User: Fold these one by one.
Assistant:
Number 1:
Amino acid sequence: MPVFRLSKPMVFPPPEMAESDGLLAVGGDLSSERLLRAYRMGIFPWYGDDSPILWWSPDPRMVFFPAQWKPSRSLERLVKKGAFDVSMDTAFAAVIEACANARGPGRDSTWITPEMMAAYIRLHKEGYAHSVECCIDGQLVGGLYGVSIGGCFFGESMFSNVSNASKVALAVLMKYLAARGFTLVDCQVKNDHLVRLGAQEIPRTEFLARLGEALEMETRRGKWEPDTRVQT
């Protein structure tokens, strides 16, 4: 199938027309309107500094189901210990910058370009993008961020400068989402770290159907706050 080239109109081809690797379209922009339209269709941007904007809809899709997610006993104990001060939406820009700067095995560069950072910071100011922060003595040591529309949280990236910080951030997020009736967390593509935490792959057809149901819920815009200082 051809890869579609986007122009000024806010139109995407159907996700089912993506290439076998998930690539669907190229071009367009990262305006809030276009990003939100893409997420509602099960499409997301992912590209590097030396590339035009690329839009993807992979098959299969990696997800969490908040109502079914159970932390491991070791993670549950770690959260209860309260080793991290956990907050939400207090340092979004710092979290996305830390995710952009994170390096690890096989990751010598980042797809979180300055253009991407600006776009998601704008979505945060508009109440659609959210972060979870883990701090020790006031210093940010781990966290994650993503976009929330309806009953779906579209996870974008996470980082950890101290062992297990991102896992605790995820545990707090999952409890928050489950308590508010969220039905789906999009993790985009397979990641062994997320698999160990309970993420699973589902066919794109199933993902799009579940996404459609999740989007029937009202979108919770504005600042999020964890239910208590330490989540269990």
Number 2:
Amino acid sequence: MKYFIAAVALLFFTKVSFAQSVNDVEVKSLNIYTTDSRTSLPVVTAGSRLVIEFDVQAEFIPNMNIVFRFCDKGWTPAKNVFLLNNLNSTAYFLDFEYLPSTVEDAEYHFKGEYPNNKDDVQLPFSGKWRFYLTDTQDSSIVYATGKFLYVKKEVPLNVKVKRDELENKTYWPVELGKVFNVTTNFNLPLQFHPSFVNKIEIIENRRIYNPVVVDRLSNTLFRKFEWDANRKFTFIARDIQAGNEFRQVDIRNHNVFIAKDVKALLDGLEFSRFFIAPRTKDLNGGMLFADFKDIYSTYLNVTFSIRPPDDVYGELFLVGAFNNWKLSLDYKMESEAGISSITIPLKRGIYDYQYVVADLINGKIVNDDWIVLEGNTWVNKKVYDVFLYYNDPDLGGYERIIGYRRISTR
């Protein structure tokens, strides 16, 4: 059987600086993609490589390494000696370029591709990985971190997406019942044992913090597992909300966005899009930075403002490609006179984003609603990345990804 290799990379940011700051070194605009796609969920397949790119604010050129670590299913670096990969886990002494002198709030830029011959970085295990941007002399000093999945596509997946409607109750407005049905089936090759097949995980439009999981240990009206007691498997998720195209801010044009402080929407306020069909195509949750060598490729303070309908209750949060679609207290919007606003620093570029309504109870975000302000319509394009997990008993046991497929709704 021919084997294919893939990797999925994920990002982390904080609100204030989109970085972690240690010893006056601040990593900004951390971006991970592949050599064949700059906006999709970064899945590195045979013939392409993972790209790690970021800016740095520091007084002097930083001394950094990138350390790669295989993780368990909870993203905790493995302590199992068989999974440490010590000889091929580090990219040493990163080479930085100077940013143009006109760029504010950052001095240096880095871009690297992995694996490559120079650093001899290897990713031998199929599953979840983390990388750490560390000090060259002291790896306990971590400037930023990220996650990715490395996948060997050993099991061909047949994935189908179709329109569906929820049936457990009557929905009003009726748009609330619109969903997509994602059905995955496959025949397990002989080298794998059926009892170790674990689950299907579906990531929609880069929303890594909100995966759809279909587990073989539980069956519900909307999440189903089927097995013929031999080698034929089917996993069904038929409750994925249809959603809408994302909102988008494009601050690349320096003739339009002239000042340091700008508004995401030029004419000011945004409003609910629940009954508004999408008019423009988004980046399916992605972002695109301006060329780092561009003299105008600086950082701006961007204000997002929305006037929600009077019947929408709860706190408002901003989520988007700039914070890896993570619902966070750092992105809670402040409300005044019926208008919710937040200002964040962004490098010139294009960013998909949206607004989420949720309750804040004892400092925790609960009851999050991703569609009440954005709409729920089948007239939009979504991309689903589907992963098949396997509880491999080898090497002391680890959760392994043996199948992967990307599919879109249209």
